[in-house]
Every structure is written in structure tokens, then in C-alpha cells.
Predict the 3D structure of the following.
Amino acid sequence: MKDITSKLINLFKQGYCTPQIARIAKKIKEPSTTIHYNIKKLEREGKIISYKGVFDYKKIEEGHVTFILVNLSDDNYGEPEGVAQELAKDPRVESIDICTGDYELIIKLRTKDIDEYYEWIKNTVHKFKFSKSYSITSLKQVKTEFVELK
Amino acid sequence: MKDITSKLINLFKQGYCTPQIARIAKKIKEPSTTIHYNIKKLEREGKIISYKGVFDYKKIEEGHVTFILVNLSDDNYGEPEGVAQELAKDPRVESIDICTGDYELIIKLRTKDIDEYYEWIKNTVHKFKFSKSYSITSLKQVKTEFVELK
DNA sequence: GTTAATATTTGAAGATTATTCAGTTATATA
DNA sequence: TATATAACTGAATAATCTTCAAATATTAAC
């Protein structure tokens, strides 16, 4: 066993996919060279960043979703971007936004289970000196990354 | 002008992409047939749902992100799934979860601007009889769909 | 521990698809 | 209206995916 699947999952999380030009050409009834031209244009303009996989996260041990609202400590309050970019490096962080309202950050985190979540939040609160955080746990994911789940 | 790009964006939002087997094979130094076999296995097992595009949403007129926490009316409180699945059909809804805590739903919505957001929330509150909602606006997207933004 | 069944890996061949290129048509600009 | 630029497209080529059959490895049963 070479455990290729876990490597594949990591690659597909961010990219290593490509458009199906021939299939699209059939679908919208245009020549494949026209489709090709328009896709390259979207890429050139930077409108398309990447092509990636979407998973049934329960089946890949990432079924536990938590939204975490964060207050930063006084030290980091003025510049949340550095903290956010650091957190963004964690592959379990699906999204992170700097936001309005009572909290400065909103993080969408994917872990295997509540135990892994607990470890993550404990370590992260300590490391980044969050002054407060409020976690909302997903009970059921109905749609993710624009893809409806069945 | 045939406006092919907007059709492409819609298709890539949910799929119409495919893995780059040859590129992956080089990357992890395994034969492409082995990569092929393992990908098909992941698909067969339902671990991979789809391959899709990720966009620079500001450049495609979807740069305004809002997280909306929702309380349902008494009518819908007991069965939030129906409401969630209905909302999931909207292409501007990136994700929707049924959740713990003070609110029953958490929606991640992408609109062109705050005006489109206002129209959406006004219509949706009315249509689905939300008893209360709390919106958090993203000021800066640092990471989305597991992809770091620059 | 041996055997049988099943799953994974792999190279070679064929089928399909992406890409390049050159020419055409359409759109925008002066 | 003339000119420049952008968008579209068919034909040929290059690259990739997919199938297949055989080898190897893993698992299960006895």
C-alpha cells in the first residue's frame, strides 16, 4: 500500500484539475476551440484561480464542521491580516474572512470529529492569543463550495 | 459576442472539470495508470463528489460575502432542512449548514455588492419567514474553498 | 503457515482530448 | 469609413486519458 489516495485528496483540495473542454463544447453547442479560447482568457484575466476537487467530507474523515467567530487580543486587534494568513496555511481551515461586527475573524474549520476540533481550538486560542471566541457547530451540511450535498 | 464566459463560470461553479492525471503522476512520481486507478476508486467510493473551478470573485461580480445566521419562524423551526435545501438552490449561496447555538442556519452568500445583498435578504426573510437574522459582512477574504487568496 | 480470493500496481496500445496555428469574422477605435 | 484589435473557428498536431492484461501485493479462510 502506497497510500496514494491521501496524497490525491491533498492535491485536489487546491488544484490539479483542469476543464473538460470537449464536454463543455457539446453542452453549450460551440466549437471546442472557441471554448478553449474563452477559458484561456478567463485564466489570463485572473478570473479563474484554480480547478479543484470537492469531497464527501464525512467519507474522508473531515466531517466535523465548525464556524469560529474570533476576537483578537489587543496586540493583534489592529492587524488581523497577519493572523488570518497564518491560520490560512492550516489545511483544515476551509475559509477565513476578516469581518464586521462583534468579532474580527470568521473561520470555517473542518476536522475529523469534535475531539480534533477541541485540540485545534485549544492550541489556536493559545498560540494566537484570541481574547474570545464563539463556535457554531454544523449539524448538517446542505451545501458547500457551491455544491449541494445529498 | 456570444457571452460564453458567463456560461463557463456557471458550469465551473459546480463541475465540468477533471483531474490532471499526467501532472499528478509526475508530481508524486508514480505511473499515470496507478494514479488513474486510485482516482477512479475515490470516485467509485463517493469520496470525490465533483471537480470545479475557484474564482477571483471580485473579478466576476461576486465580491461581496455575507455570513447570515438565521432563526426560523415557529412554522419551520422543527424542520429546517426543507428551508435549507430550498435556499441551497440559489447559485449565490456558497454554503448552508444547519447548526447548533442561538441560530438554526448559517448561510454564506456571495453577491455583487451590498445592494444585491440587501435585495436578497429582504426577499428571503419575507419568503421563508425568518423570525430573526444576524449578518456578518466579510471585509477581506483571506481563504475560500481551501484556496488562499492573494 | 499455506492457500485462495481480492485488491493494487503497472506497461503497452488505442481512443479521446487539448493545443497550436492560420485564417476568418466581428467589434471597437480613430 | 478605415484601421486596429478582439473573438471565433476548422484542420493538424501534440498530449493526455483510458482500457486491457499481466504482475505483484494484500487480505481472509482454513
